[in-house]
Design brief:
The chain has 876 residues and is α+β, with helices and mostly antiparallel strands. It is built from 25 helices and 35 strands. It starts with a helix and ends with a helix.
Amino acid sequence: MKGADIRRKFLEFFASKGHEIYPSASLVPVDDPSLLWINAGMAPLKPFFDGRRVPPNPRIASSQKCIRTNDIENVGKTARHQTFFEMLGNFSMGDYFKKEAIDWAWEFLTQQIGLEPDRLSVTIHPEDDEAYELWHKRIGIPDERIFRLEDNFWEIGEGPCGPCSEIFYDRGEGRGCGRPECNVGCECDRYLEIWNLVFTQFNHNPDGTYTPLPKKNIDTGMGLERMASVMQDVDSNFDTDLFRPIIDATSRAAGVEYGRRTDGDVALKVIADHVRTAVFAVGDGVLPGNEGRGYIIRRLLRRAVRYGRNLGLERPFLHRLVPVVGEVMGEAYPEIVEKAEFIGRVIKAEEERFLETLAEGEQVLAGYIAKLKAAGGRVLAGKDAFRLYDTFGFPIDLTREIAGETGIGVDEQGFEAELNAQRERARAARQEVESMQSKRGALVDLEVPSRFVGYDTPEVQTRIEALVVDDQFAERVSEGQHCLVVLNETPFYAESGGQVPDRGTIETASARLEVEDVQKAPRGQHVHTCRVVRGTVTVGEVVRARIDRGYREDVIKNHTATHLLHKALREVLGDHVAQAGSLVADTRLRFDFSHFGPLAPEEIEAVERMVNEEIWRNETVDIREMPLAEAKAMGAMALFGEKYGERVRVVKAGDFSIELCGGCHVSRTSEIGLFKIVSETGTGSGVRRVEAVTGRHAYGFLDARIKLLDTAASTLRVPPGEVPDKLIQVLGRMKEIERELESWRDRWIRGQALALADKAVDVGGVPLVAAAVAGATPEQMRRMVDVLREAVPSGVVVLGSRQEDKVVFVAAVSPDWVKRGLHAGRLVKEVAAVAGGGGGGKPDLAQAGGRHPEKLEEALARAPEWVRQQREAGVP
C-alpha cells in the first residue's frame, strides 16, 4: 500500500466518522511564538484545544506536514529519524473521548488496512485505568500485551497535553534482537510504534504550570512514513515510496547504487530527507538565512551538499531533486509543484554559495583537527570554529558534526565570544587572506623592509627583497613560474578593509611579471602574487613596479563613494546604521549595514541623491594622519571591532563624511562622476546590503536602462516619457477585456448548466445529471454545479471534462439525499476509477481525476449504476 493510499484511506475513514478534513497548515506557526516549526498534527489546532476558539465541527482529521530538528545528526543513521514528516491525526474538541478514539484506531488498523490483531500491543500511563479497561475488555487485547509506562504523558512545548496510549506493531522475530526479553520498548526494530493516542485534558502554561482544559479532547498522531514502512514491509522509512524516488534520483546523479555501502546509504538518506524538508519549508516562505528558521534550512541544505560531495557530486544538484519531491508529494501538496521553479532557484543559489567555500573550509578544518590531535588536544578552539564560520560559511553545527566524527569537541563558548566581538564580515576579503596564510609559511619570520608608497605614487623604481616559490625562498624565478615577491618599496595596495588589491606589472629590461594579487605578510610586508610572463628576475635586482592606473581609479571612486554612502544612510535612516561589511572593487561597491528592515523606494532615492549632491559639490577629500584621540574628537567614524594604533589615518570628504580609513581615495568628490544604487537586499536578520556603481560603470548601467526604455517606447509607439501612462492604459484595457470575458464565461456556464438540468434522468427515484462538459475547467464545473443545485434542488450531479492528457470529475449530492445516505466523495471515486484515477471529498461535493481521458463517457456511465446500487442496497 503506497503512502498516498494510506493517507487517503485514513482521511476517508475519519470523514466517514463525521470528521471535517482539514488541509495541512503551513510549517510556519501562526501566532504561536512557543514553536519554531509546526511539529505535530495538533499544533495548528491549539486555539481549538485550549478554548480560545470553537471549531465549526468538533471532529477534525488531517495529514499535517511537520518539521522536527532536535535529532538532525541521527538522520540517515537510523531507520526512523527524519526532519520532515507527515502526521496523520484525528482530533476531538470536547466531543468524543477515549472509547471512540480507541475503537476507531483499532477499526482502522485491523479492518481498513488489514493489520493482524495479534501483532498489536499498546502502552498506557500507569494511572490510566480507563484506557486499560477499554483496551483489555472492550477491544480484547490480552493483559500481557498492555504495558504501563511512566513516559506515556504527551507534551511538546506550551499548549495542550495529557496521558497517552501508544500502539505498537510486531514486525516479527526476523527484525528483532533475538533476546528472550525482547518486547515493546526494546531498542531493536521488531516492535514499532505506529500510532499515539493522546487523551488531552490539560494545558501546559508558559510559567510551567498545568491547568485543566475547558473540555476533554482527543489528539492522535500516526507517522505516515512509519506506517508506510509497515504496509510495504521494508526495513526503514527511507525504503518506502515516499523516499525511494528521491534516493534513486540521487543515486543516478552520483553513479552509486543504494544498498551497497553503509556510508553511501547514509548520504543518500540524509540528502533525501533534507531536500524534502527544504522544498516544503521554502514553499512555505522560509528562505535560507543566518537566524531562526532560515538558519535551520541553510544548515540542512549545507549538510546535504556536504553529503553529496561524499558521493562525488561536486556541482549543485539538490535543486534538480525539487521536481522529484513534487512527483512524490505533489498530489497531496500541490503548492510545491506550483512553486517548484522558485524553490529550485532558492536551493540552487544556496548550493552555489556554499560550494564556493566548502571544499577549502573542509581542508582547513581537517588541518585544525590533525594539528590538535598531534598535540594531544580534544577540543577545537573557539577562534578556529569562528574562522570557519566567518570565512567559509560553516555553521557551528556543521563544524561540531565534522569534528565529532573524529572524536573532537568544539569550544562553543569561545566561538560565541568571537562572534559577538567581530561585527564586520567582509567574507571575500577574508577568504583571500585565509588563502594567503596557506602560502606564506616561509614569510612568517621574514624581516626584510617593505614600504607602501602607493597612496600618491602609482609607479616606482624599487628592489626585490625576497622571492618565494612553493613555500620556499628562492634566489630567482623564470618565465612560466608563479611566485610571491616582496619589494623594498611598492605602489601596490594590499587587500584590506574591503578594498581589493591593485593589479599591474613588475618589470626589468628583460623580464616582466604580472601582479595578480597582493596580501599582507605576518609582519606587514606587502606580498605580491605574480606570474612570470617573460625573462628571469633575482633577489636584489632593481625593478620598476607599476600599478594599473585605470583599475585603481575605478576602485578609488567606489571607495570614496562608500564613505559618502555610509554617511548618507545614517542621515536618512538614523544613527543606528553601522557598517557590517563591505567590498570595494573596480566595477562595483557593496556595503552591508545594520538596519531593521528593507528601505522604502523614497529612502533609496534620498540616499542616492544625497551622495550625488556631495559628488557635484566637488568637495576636497582631505587625508591626514593624526593621534586617535584627536580623530575621535573630530567625529571620525571608526568601524566596530576594528583595532587602531595610536596614530590613525583620517579621510574627510568636505564637511559631510569623516572616517578612519587606510584605503585609497579620490582627491575631490567630483572625480567619482556619478553614483547609482542598483540593489538593496537583506543578508540576514538586521543586516541590509546596498550594491552600487560609480563613474563609467554607472553610465553603462543607466545607458542600458535608457535603451530598455527606448525599446519599450518603440514597442508601445509612444515617446519615452509617455511609457508609464501608456502601460497603465494597456493594462486597464486588458482588465476590461478580462471582465468582459468573465461575464461571457458566466453566461456560458449558466447556459450549459440549465441545458444539462433539462436532461436530468430518474434513477430509482433519484434525479441524476451525468454529463461531459467540453472545455470546462474544474472551477467552471464547480460553478455549473452551483447553478444545477438551484435548477435541480434534489438529486445528484456528476460532470466530467477532458484536461489535456487527463480527465477531471466533479460530483454533488443535494442535502436531502446526503441525509439519506448518498455520498459525493464515494460516488466520484467510483466514477474516476473507471478512467484510471481516484479522489474524494465531502458528502455534498467532491472532485477526482483520471489518467485516461478517452474513458470519460464510460466513467460517467458508472454514475447511474452506482446510484441504482445504492438504492438497491437500502438507501431510502
